[in-house]
Amino acid sequence: MNIYLPIAEMSANLLLFIGMGASVGFLSGMFGVGGGFLMTPLLIFTGVPSAVAVGTEAAQIVASSVSGALAQWRRRNIDFKMGTILLAGGIVGSVFGVEAVKALRRAGQFDLFVILSYVTMLGVIGTLMMIESINAIRQAKSGVVIASRQRGQHNWVHRLPLKMRFHRSKLYISALPPLVLGVFVGFLAAIMGVGGGFIMVPAMIYLLKVPTNVVVGTSLFQITFVTAATTVLHATQNQTVDATLALLLIVGGVIGAQFGAIAGQRLRGEQLRFLLAGIVLLVALRLAWSLVVHPGELFSLTPLGRP
Amino acid sequence: MSTARLLHRGTFIALAVGVLTAGVLVGAALAQRPTPPQPPSGPSLPAPPTQITPPPPAPAQEVRPAEAPPLPREAVHADVSTRRIAVTSTFSGTGIIVFGAVDNSRQTSAESGLYDVVIVISGAPSRLVARKKSNVGGLWINTSSTTFTSVPSYYAISSTRPLDEIASDDVLKSSGIGFDFVPMTFHRSARNLTADEIREWRDAVVRLKRRDRLFQQDEYGVAFVGRSLFRSAFDMPATVTVGAFETRVYLFRDGELLSTYTTKLDLEREGLEQFIHRFAFDHPFFYGVFTVLIAVGAGMLASYVFNRNKA
After folding, report:
1. CATH number for the domain whose boundaries are B72-132+141-269
2. Helices A243-266 and A14-31 meet at what angle, rounded to 10?
3. What's the sign of the alpha-carbon dihedral A281, A287, A291, A297?
4. Minimal Cα distance from B276: which residue of A?
5. Tens-place pLDDT, residues B112-141
6. Which candidate, B29, B124, B311, places its Cα nearest to that of A307?
7. What's the start-to-end Cα distance of chain B, in Å?
8. Is B263 helix (H, G, I), strand (E, B) or coil?
């Protein structure tokens, strides 16, 4: 059954997008990650204009993170003070990101920019995960456990000005690092159509030393509001949010995530990470390939202004 | 399940449903855009939006032998199968039949081949940017571009035989018939381009539009079904831009343009389709908020449904 997407201006099979939502939802349920970094490239592969893929994906992330954020809130796992600072930075980053998308589209370089950003990000993350999971699998086989690195009590983060007390996280640190982190993640959300949890979570744990139990809730809180703001900004500035497409991806995504979570409980952590690393690297290679191989048709047309 | 938890769950689902409803309501309220004023239609049937261009003046009356009275001049009339086509969410392209007749046909049968008919359907002109990639350090990157201020969004030609057999290039050019003569205007920034570059950009537009089936040609698409009646089928892909289309019918005999006829057809967005499109472009801020509310509602509803199953 075909459906016409009003903003992407293309006709495609209804089941294709629900299926894509379900597959990525399955993976994100299984691995416990947001699916933005897989969904945006997949949408681009199916022929959705890259700017529409990025704008619409922001809306889907709102749906997939809101329930998680609410669950964490009920368990009181959100540091609202830290979250608000991350969010303030995130909105600033998102405003800049949306303007950057606008300027790059006008210059005809947005496709290139998105693909290069994804190749870099997926390449780095995929490689790191691959190395880490191979090491973990080897250790599990040999039975040797390498002691995790002792964390220092103080690092450079603690020498910055504007110190604040974060009661929920039991921290007394400068407000600058979470603010900068928020700006960076908000910028990524706007230009790449990702939530940014894969950067925010490690940064909060290792850099800010936020207790693990508050990290997930606080980052989900930030992601929900930043992607919501990003959706509105993309809709206003670029008209690149396709509500029909978003709804199809959401429907597929919520169903897929339920089954993914069940499947994830039956697989071992390091094997899961190895599998995810493989998928991430494949997507990166496929994107890089599209830039290197002769495109066949050197010309392209972009409509300007609508009636 | 305790009363407190029940209450909690109740508020939760109420909240989810509330958010969804609010989204839909806000959307519906904002999409109520005043419709453009319709021209008043009188009690009688409105005249069809067509016009006949007067045929070229008949040659001055010569002194003819009395046994051969002057034959009346031919004229062409035509219409389309559907004047108004609705694009809905399930729109996957459409077919259109153009049919017409030659008045005062001197043909004895459909096979005589005395007349040539060319039908051109063109969509509303649109602005577009064409870009060209070249290899920069191993990567294929857009390096040059040119802007067109007017290119027909759709352009389909159907004829009784190949155009070069029907009329000379001069005749075709003056009527804008054929891919070589599609009316396109460059933005003034393109004034420094050489003739070859202009040719290259024009050809690229035609090639890409043909690939997307937005430009089409059928060299034997028009068939006579009698001594004066002819018809042709056209198809419009799902990606066609909505708007007003003009159908022009040209009647030729021996390379001479005898008569033309113009009729219009409209492609309109309808239903959910039109609602979303209008909403997104007329009220972008509220459309964004609406999309977010839908996403929040869907996310909360899903988590409620699946958590209940687990409990």
Report:
1. 2.60.40.3880
2. 40
3. positive
4. A6
5. 888 999 999 999 888 899 999 988 888 898
6. B124
7. 9
8. strand
Q: Kindly give the pairing relationship between strand B116-122 and strand B139-152.
A: unpaired
Helix H or strand E encompassing A113: helix A110-142
- Contact (Cβ atoms closer than 8 angstroms) between residue A86 and residue A223: no
CA–CA distance, B289 with A202 (Å, rounded to integer): 31
Rounded Cα distance, A266 and A238, in Å? 43
Q: Which residues of B164-176 are buried (b: 16+ CB within 10 A; e: fewer)?
A: eebbeeebbeeeb
Residue of A nearest to B284 (CA): A236
The amino acid sitting at A151 is R
User: Which one-letter DSSP state was computed for residue B67?
Assistant: T
Q: Do A301 and B280 touch (CB under 8 A)?
A: no
Find tokens 């030609």 and name the residue: B157
CB contact under 8 A, A67 and B300: yes
Residues 3 to 32 of A: which have CB under 8 A from any B CB? Answer: 3-4, 6-7, 9-11
Q: How far is CA A158 from the centre of its chain?
A: 28
CB contact under 8 A, A109 and B93: no
Residue B292 has its nearest CB partner, among A231, A299, A304, at: A231
Q: How far apart are CA B291 and CA B281, in angstroms?
A: 13
Q: Where are the alpha helices (DSSP H) in B176-283?
A: 195-211, 271-282
Chain A residue with CA closest to B297: the answer is A63
| CB contact (8 A) between residue A4 and residue B291 | no
What is the arithmetic mean of pLDDT over B243-258?
A: 91
Q: A13 pairs with which residues across the strands?
A: A2
pLDDT number for residue A294: 84
**Nearest alpha carbon to residue B253 among B71, B50, B69:** B71
Tell me which residue of B115, B94, B84, B95 sits closest to B230, measured CA to CA.
B115
Map residue A167 onto helix, strand or coil: coil
**Are the Cβ atoms of B280 and A239 closer than 8 angstroms?**
yes
Q: Is A232 on the interface with B (CB under 8 A)?
A: yes
Name the helix (H) or strand (E) containing B11: helix B3-31
- Angle of helix A110-142 versus helix A176-192 axis, rounded to 10: 120
* Inter-residue contact B293 to B19 (CB < 8 Å): yes
Every domain of chain A and the residues it spans: 12-141+156-292
pLDDT score, position B43: 42
Per-residue DSSP letter, B110: T
B98 Cα to chain A: minimum distance (Å): 25
Which run of H or E residues covers position A12? Answer: strand A10-13
- What is the residue-level pLDDT of chain A in tens, covering all 307 positions? 778 787 887 778 889 999 999 999 888 888 777 788 889 999 998 889 899 999 999 999 999 888 888 888 888 888 898 999 999 999 999 999 999 999 998 888 898 999 999 999 999 988 988 898 888 888 877 765 555 544 555 567 777 777 888 878 788 888 888 999 999 999 999 999 998 888 888 888 888 888 888 888 898 999 999 999 999 999 999 999 999 999 999 999 988 888 888 887 777 777 778 888 898 899 999 999 988 888 888 888 888 764 3
Tell me which residue of B258, B225, B245, B213 sits closest to B118, measured CA to CA: B258
Angle at which helices A36-45 and A269-292 pack, to 10 degrees?
A: 40
